[in-house]
Every structure is written in C-alpha cells, then in structure tokens.
Design brief:
- It comes from Thiothrix subterranea.
- It is built from 13 helices and 17 strands.
- With 411 residues, the protein is an alpha+beta fold.
- The strands form three sheets. Strands 9, 10, 11, 12, 13, 14, 15, 16 and 17 form a nine-stranded antiparallel β-sheet that branches. The protein has a four-stranded parallel β-sheet with strand order 3-2-1-4. It has a four-stranded antiparallel β-sheet with strand order 5-8-6-7.
- The chain is globular, with a radius of gyration of 21 Å.
Length: 411
C-alpha cells in the first residue's frame, strides 16, 4: 500500500520553498490561444476562468500565488475576525497572494523575480519566460505529460485511440475507421470538460469538428455506463519516491463537464487501481516529473479500469486533501462534496451568512472570487462536509440552497 503524502502546501509539493511562484490555470484569455503554442484551449467566460485561479489560495505555503484581480485574498481582503479565523486554522498553508490586472500583465511580476521558480500547469512561449525560470528542468515535460494524444506513452491501460492532426480531422477519411458512438478530445491540455465531445450522432461529430477545428485531436472508443470515475492525486518527490495524496470520485455532467468531487478523506484505492496510478507516476518520474499528478481512471461496467485523462498539476480536489487534518478534528470519516457555488452578495456577506457552518467545518471555502464591476455575486470553491453519509449531502445541499448558496457559478 502506498504511503500517504504528508505535505500540505504548493511550496512543499514542488520543493520551491520561499523561492517559488505558483500560477494556477488560465492566466490569459482565448485571444492568446494561437495554434502551435503551448496554451490551454477553452471556451469559458472570463469569470469562470478567474474562478479557477481561486481554488488554490489556502495551500500556497511559502510560495507566492499569482492570480488575476477579483480573487479574494483571505489574509488581506476580509475583516479582522475572518483574518484571524483563517490564520488560526491555515497559517502554515496561506502564502502571499499577488494579483495582476489581466492580459499579459502577470509577465511584469515574473520579470521582476527572475530567480523565482515558477510552478504552472503549462509552459509559456520562450520569448516571454525563459526555460530556467521554471521549477522543472524541462518545462516542455508539462505539455508532454498532459497531452491526451500521448497517454499510451505512460500507461498500458488506455482506451484504444487514434490521434489526428488538424488537417486530417477537418476531412472525412478518418471517419472510415470509427463507428458511432465515440469520443473526440482535444489532444493538447484542457480541463473542466472543455476539450471533450461525446459523439452519438453525425450532428455531434460535425459540431466537434467545428469546435475543435484547427487543433490536433484524439478519437477514442466510448465507454458508456461506467461504474466509477476516479481521480487519484499522487506526489512524486525529487528522488522519485511516490506517495498517495488522496482520491475521489469525480462529479461529471452528462455533457462531460467537471462539476466537482465526492471525497472520502479516509479512502484508499484498491490494489489494482493503485498499481495503475503508480505505473503512470513512475513513468512520469523517469522522465523528470516532480510534484502533483492527478490521474483520472474510470471503472467500466465489466469492472475493467481505464486511464482516461492526465492532469500533471494541482487538481480541483488537491486543496481538500492538503487540508485533510482540518476536517479530521471534527469528523471521524469526513465525506466531502466539492465544487463551485454562487452567492448573491459580497464575500463578507457570504462568510457571515454561513459562519456557523464554517466554524463547525460543515462548509469549507478554499477560494473566493468577487468582481462588483461584473455583478454582485460571490463565486466560491468549497467543500460541503458530512460524516460518511452520501444522503446527508443531498439534504445539506438543499438546505444551503434555500439560504442562497447555489451550486455552480451561475454566470
């Protein structure tokens, strides 16, 4: 059985100490997503993308977290009582938060800190950030390991797939090799379901060709009626040691959108599932990977396990595994339902409304986003917690919704 990883900050996970700068996902917008560059491809709103950067504020540690304006800094933007609350519970995990205005303005901050080691979910064009600015010796490894078209390089448990360049995908000859239903995925790194299209009809195929036009894709067999969709977070240390951070079952919509996780903080994977995850992490370590990897594995109706998505970066579930000890002070076997929620009001109004639940650890916000120039809503990434009772989550969610905490971002 894998030993459990005991680190709880970005600086520990990526071995940067106080010399690290962490940039979460989506620091730029779709206008900058040019063919041939190592950028994420996405079709979400600016508000959604900025919400993603708020998911990791409580786990920076010694590292500085660089995020877009609108993200709420727990240590500065709240009133003294809430400052004290978060400092009391998360003082060792709360690093400095620095905000940039938008566009490429984050480059100015990075340029003023040339010695800092940058932790990012993707590298940038070399004319913007030099390769020696990253925590990895070879930052292109981030692209390689997150490439859905190269998953077979690191795992023997992939769903059979083929990869097509943009020109081939735009044509019709590739269709001769595939019978519906099947799945088309953007090969380059993407997330939140942005790069996935489940094709049941020819109209679905045409829509996917329009949506992913100009990009390299992979096509794989459709596995319907799967029994579970696991996300396993593993940690690879500098010496290659692999440890288990935690696991969850992902909440995925019918259109393959990521909606959050169900997390049992005391769960451990079966030997077979663990073996698949270790195989992938070991292959990544042999290539030079260091840090967190989140590996998505589904269990098909026949019980077979398939590796379906590489996430060599911090994952949406990672913060809750890192603050595991926080929940264990109140619950024997805490079960979490995580995801984005929306509240009509500013962050302090949200915190005061749900103060009893937060104090009792029934609610745990790890990231807040508020842009009054857009609307008066607070977007929050959080966990709802019960004592090992899935049915209780439903009751809790309904009760909180009646008080104004709505699931989803509600843009």
């Amino acid at each position: 059985m894998l030993e459990r990883y005991t680190g709880c900050t970005v600086s520990e996970a990526y071995a940067t100490g106080s010399n690290g700068i962490h940039m979460p996902r989506y620091p730029y917008y779709a206008a900058y997503d040019l063919p041939g560059e190592c950028h994420y491809y996405y079709r979400r709103s600016v508000q959604y993308l900025t919400c993603q950067t708020a998911r990791f504020l409580l786990i920076g540690g010694e590292a500085t977290t660089l995020v877009k304006e609108g993200v709420v800094d727990f240590s500065r933007d709240l009133n003294p009582w809430w400052h004290g609350f978060f400092q009391e519970h998360f003082s060792k995990q709360m690093g400095e938060v620095v905000r940039y205005a938008g566009g490429h303005s984050y480059l100015e901050y990075l340029g003023n800190h040339p010695q800092a080691k940058l932790v990012v979910p993707h590298p940038y064009p070399a004319d913007q950030i030099a390769s020696d600015h990253y925590y990895l010796e070879n930052p292109e490894l981030i692209v390689q390991l997150n490439d859905k078209g190269r998953m077979a390089d690191i795992s023997s448990h992939c769903i059979p797939y083929e990869v097509y360049d943009a020109a081939t995908f735009a044509g019709k000859t590739w269709r001769e090799h595939w019978e519906l239903p099947f799945v088309i995925k953007l090969a380059a790194p993407s997330g939140g379901g942005d790069g996935v299209a489940i094709c049941q009809t020819e109209a679905d195929v045409q829509a996917a060709q329009e949506r992913f036009g100009g990009h390299r894709v992979k096509v794989e067999h459709f596995i319907g009626g799967y029994l579970a969709n696991y996300n396993l977070n593993l940690h690879v240390e500098r010496d290659g040691t692999i440890r288990f951070i935690g696991g969850s079952e992902q909440r995925i919509s019918a259109s393959a959108r990521y909606e959050g996780n169900f997390i049992d903080l005391c769960w451990h994977p079966s030997p077979e599932l663990e073996a698949i995850a270790v195989e992938i992490a070991r292959n990544a370590a042999n290539l030079g990977w260091l840090g967190v990897c989140g590996l998505d594995v589904i269990k098909a109706a026949d019980g077979k396990l398939y590796f379906i998505d590489p996430n060599f970066r911090l994952n949406g579930s990672t913060p809750f595994h890192f603050i595991r000890a926080h929940f264990l002070t109140h619950f024997q076997r805490p079960n979490l339902e995580t995801g984005y929620f929306c509240y009509q009001g500013n962050p302090l109004a949200f915190l005061e409304t749900f103060r009893p639940e937060i104090e009792k650890k029934v609610l745990m916000p790890v990231g807040l986003y508020y842009d009054p120039s857009y609307d008066q809503k607070t977007r929050v990434y959080l966990a709802q917690v019960t004592e090992n009772d899935v049915d209780a989550h439903v009751s809790l969610r309904d009760t909180l919704a009646q008080r104004g905490l709505l699931p989803g971002i509600h843009l």
